[in-house]
Design goal:
432 residues, alpha/beta, Transcription Termination Factor Rho, Rna-binding Domain, Chain A, Domain 1, OB fold (Dihydrolipoamide Acetyltransferase, E2P), Rossmann fold, five-stranded mixed beta barrel, 11 helices
């Protein structure tokens, strides 16, 4: 196969397939490479020369990226047009349903007047029939009764207008998109509860809500549905009002990353710096208390005004203690480790949104290497210090020789006496 065909096939392949191929070819550090660089490394392992193929690879990568971006724009425009058409159709149908009873009542009234006129033209006996309703056929009396019932019938729930001055209460939570363009304000990251609130699709469009957005809302009682509340209005998203929200920068993944900076948790971890955007692995031999060190790190980060979340992938009953200022998400040791993934990913997206708005956040995961390797690497590699914004720091506790060590910026080793020291030989960055 020619080098050009190799380039096309490799660049169009999923990243997971390239990782599998790189692993078979024993390419070192392949998980840290961009797709284009990984393609070059694979081709080099097959005997191609990097300097000769690099321009072709980069050109092809740019071409594919442009095609993908154009397709995404076309798809987004198509979906927006379809949603707008559906919304207009729904509004027209609701208006027609609301108007139909009035038209029917008017038609019946017109026919009644016409019959009354004919009775009056027929003489005084007909006039008495028109006024008292006597002498009418059963069909005529039935039509009159039906018209009266239609006039008095209340609107259905789907057609009823919102009650004015409905009482509202404040509620805060994390946004999770749903089907149909709406979503849910989640008050508990671990599971859905009745105390959540439905978010109407109009609010989702108006505020351009993304998964993980932190919402401050006024909610009212829901008349039906799977939650007790529905959002009446949003007051802020990630601490920003609607005007400031419109001026917000690009998404987390599209922002430039700055070098790791700062130094947190200097008391317990003075020899293992934890900087904004770092990826820290705390490791050590069995019973070396790496999990305990991770909890100490969580407490100190929270004390340094960092939004801190501790996720215990497979928690034992004794690991459910409360840490001041730290949100703890505990998986169930009796279930598969993957069961904690929905809550972990929602917490990760929440931290990304907060970092976009300028906050320093930290996600600490005890047992991250128990999850599927590709998912664990994806989560761990999300850490970064944003050039314009805040930072997301990620730390994980695992056994000695964890595969996450290859992706870490700092590796802390639990030594004797349960003290943590920095493995300077393995760590390639360190904060001063």
């Amino acid at each position: 196969m020619s080098a050009v065909l190799d380039i096309d096939n490799l660049l169009e392949s999923p990243l997971a397939d390239l990782h599998a191929l790189a692993g078979e070819l024993d390419i070192e550090g392949y998980r840290l490479l961009k797709k284009s660089d990984l393609t070059i490394a694979i081709l080099e392992s097959r005997g191609a020369i990097g300097d000769e193929i690099r321009p072709a690879v980069e050109a092809k990568a740019q071409e594919l990226a442009a095609i993908k971006a154009e397709r995404e724009r076309e798809l987004a425009a198509k979906e927006a047009a379809e949603e707008e058409a559906r919304e207009e159709a729904r509004e027209a149908a609701e208006a027609q349903r609301a108007q139909k009873p009035r038209n029917q009542r008017g038609d019946r009234g017109g026919r009644s007047s016409e019959r009354g006129g004919r009775n009056r033209r027929g003489g005084r006996g007909g006039e008495r029939k028109g006024q008292a309703g006597e002498g009418r056929t059963p069909r005529e009396r039935g039509a009159q009764a039906e018209g009266k019932r239609a006039a008095e019938k209340p609107e259905s729930k789907s057609e009823a207008k919102p009650r004015a001055n409905e009482p509202t209460t404040p509620l805060a939570g994390v946004f999770e998109p749903g089907s149909g363009g709406g979503g849910r304000l989640r008050t508990d990251l671990t599971r859905r509860v009745r105390g959540d609130a439905d978010v109407p699709r109009g609010e989702v469009r108006r505020w351009n809500l993304q998964r993980g957005d932190l919402l401050q809302a006024q909610v009212k009682k829901a008349r039906r549905g799977r939650t007790d509340f529905v959002v009446a209005s949003l007051e802020s998203v990630n601490g920003l009002d609607q005007a400031a929200r419109k001026q917000a920068g690009p998404a987390f993944e599209k922002r430039d990353a700055a070098p790791i900076a700062g130094a947190y948790a200097k008391r317990t971890f003075k020899h293992a710096p934890v900087g904004d955007g770092s990826r820290l692995v705390i490791t050590g031999p069995t019973r070396a208390a790496a999990s305990e060190m991770l909890k100490k790190l969580a407490g100190e980060l929270a004390g340094d005004n960092v939004v801190t979340t501790l996720v215990i992938v497979s928690a034992r009953p004794e690991q459910s203690e409360v840490i001041n200022g730290v949100e703890v998400i505990a998986g169930d040791a009796t279930k598969a480790p993957e069961d904690v993934l929905p809550a972990l990913e929602l917490a990760l997206e929440r931290d990304k949104r907060l970092a976009e708005s300028g906050r320093a956040t930290a996600l600490l995961v005890d047992g991250l290497d128990l999850l599927p390797s590709e998912k664990a690497a994806e989560i761990f590699n999300s850490a970064r210090n944003l050039a314009q914004g805040g930072a997301l720091t990620i730390a994980a506790a695992g056994g000695a020789g964890s595969p996450l060590e290859a992706l870490a910026s700092s590796i802390g080793v639990v030594a004797g006496g349960r003290k943590l020291k920095l493995d300077k030989k393995s760590s390639w960055t360190a904060s001063k």
